[in-house]
Design brief:
Largest sheet: 7 strands, mixed
Structural class: alpha+beta
Number of strands: 9
Strand order of the largest sheet: 1-2-3-4-5-9-6
Radius of gyration: 15 Å
Number of helices: 5
Distance between the termini: 24 Å
Strand content: 25-35%
Order of helices and strands: EHHEEEHEHEHEEE
Bound molecules: acetyl coenzyme *A
Length: 159
């Protein structure tokens, strides 16, 4: 779907004095504890519509050349309208502007919609973090009726 980017929607970085929108971040991650492991060292980008935050993504520098999208989420009411796709493009553009060579993202092995979306946006699978969702979360996580086990890592070269 192609997003109609009118004048009333844009992406900007969340300022340090603004409240972290955990409600949105929790759509993509299970617990606040898991989010707090990366959020303080990350840059948070928000997508606003009429002064309301409706989507978010979080970038964490991994190395001189690599940056990771640690969290990406669109509020329930606005999913399926092309915003996720728009944010993935925006994240890759920002990473490239900052001089990174590669952008990476991880998702669950049963997260079929996310795997589809990321590959459609030019990411390719390069690694699997075995047992990630078993070893790092207190409760089993289910998606599409399947328990998440491994994290699938995808990368996109920024040319
Ligand atoms: N089921 C299957 N596919 C769907 C659905 C759906 N319900 N809705 C949209 N899609 C497809 C679309 O068809 C579209 O592809 P197409 O244009 O070829 O048809 C593609 O997914 C992209 O759709 P968008 O509208 O751009 O995606 P959206 O704005 O909904 O954002 C996102 C995707 C971020 C995954 C959103 O759904 C979301 O916030 N989900 C909950 C949180 C989440 O899972 N985040 C990712 C976790 S991994 C991480 O954060 C690193």
């Amino acid at each position: 779907m192609v997003l109609d980017t009118g004048n009333n929607i844009w992406v900007r970085q969340l300022r340090k004095d603004e409240k972290i929108p955990y409600d949105l971040l929790l759509l993509a991650d299970e617990t606040i504890e898991a989010i707090d492991k990366y959020i303080k060292d990350s840059e948070i980008y928000i997508f606003e519509q009429e002064n309301r935050i409706i989507a978010i993504y979080v970038l964490l520098k991994i190395s001189k050349d690599i940056i990771e999208i640690k969290n990406i989420a669109v509020d329930d009411k606005h999913q399926g309208q092309g915003i996720g796709e728009y944010l993935l493009k925006d994240a890759a553009n920002k990473a490239k502007e900052k001089g990174f060579k590669k952008i990476i993202i991880g998702t669950g092995d049963a997260s079929t919609r996310q795997l589809y979306l990321y590959q459609k946006e030019g990411f390719e699978i390069f690694d699997t973090k075995k047992r990630f969702f078993i070893d790092n979360y207190p409760e089993p996580i289910y998606e599409n009726g399947i328990q998440l086990e491994h994290m699938i890592m995808l990368k996109k070269e920024l040319k």
